[in-house]
Amino acid sequence: MNMNEIPEALCQKLRIKIISSLVSSSKTFNELLDLTQTTKGNLSVQLTKLEEWQYITSDKVIENKKTKTTYTLTDTGMSQFEEYVALLKKIIEESVG
Amino acid sequence: MNTTANEAIENISIIKSTMEESKISYEGLYKLCLVFGICNIALTLASYLSVMLVFKTAVTTDFLIFSTVLTRILSFAVPLTAYVMICKKEKSYNNRFYLSIIDTWAVISIVLPVFRIIVSLIQYYMINNGLLPQCDPSNIFINSGDLSAAVLFLMIIIIYSNISRKPYIKIFGLIIMFVQMFISMVELSFLPGTTDHATLIKYPGYEIYTTVSGIFGFLVFGLGYIIIGVLIKKKVEEAKTGKES
Hints:
The complex is a heterodimer. Chain A is an alpha+beta fold. Chain A has 4 helices and 3 strands, in the order αβααββα.
């Protein structure tokens, strides 16, 4: 991955936050809402986009008559994220000299 | 340093802080500990105060009974209220092992005292009706081995219940714990000098005696663990193959 190849999924701060949150483990919608400190609508839109790009998967479960959605980072999402972090590291190293 | 490098630093900083925050906070557990600690201190002080009042003033025994009953009720009512309030928020979180820790704490601190009261009442009724010999009514679960076995088994059931997302399984765990307490109470009632009453089976030709709790322990804490182990393995395999419900 180079500067011109950064995928759209990683071009927005909220989406970066969402993906970073999912690196350690799967999270529910409420957990992501807590971690990203954004609005429900905005989070929902970004999650749908990430799911469309196959960066994440969602799993809906009914618990106590309420739907609980859990989001998990896919292998594609993880490898893209790793490449992106490597690119950021490279940029910083190059700028420092 | 150019703009790109600054952006890179900013993005790395976002990633780092988000990943740090995404670790479990254990906030619910902290709140439960805080409430439980304060509750225990207050109840201890209240019990000392009531004893002092009995000795130093002309307080009737009715007051002592009232304060004892109130203390017993508050000792599980306060943690129960805290658990319900905290769980409203924590239940929306996904870490099922973390939820299991909170549930196990609730069972030990809330359900166990309630079960003790219920079993004591049954014991009181049975003694009054001649179904049990006169004995010390406080002797429920005097054996710490029985207690730890029951609590540990219940903990595994709670973990399995949360992993499989089947809350009703916890009820089986609670039933097992109650039955274990009841059997212990009945057996301990016969213990002082009349152990033979508690003996169920004498194997022919062998001087081996088995009690009801022995058989129960064999079935539940032996076979029960194996069954739970197999179910957990099945659940893990389902999750690996993507068949998890």
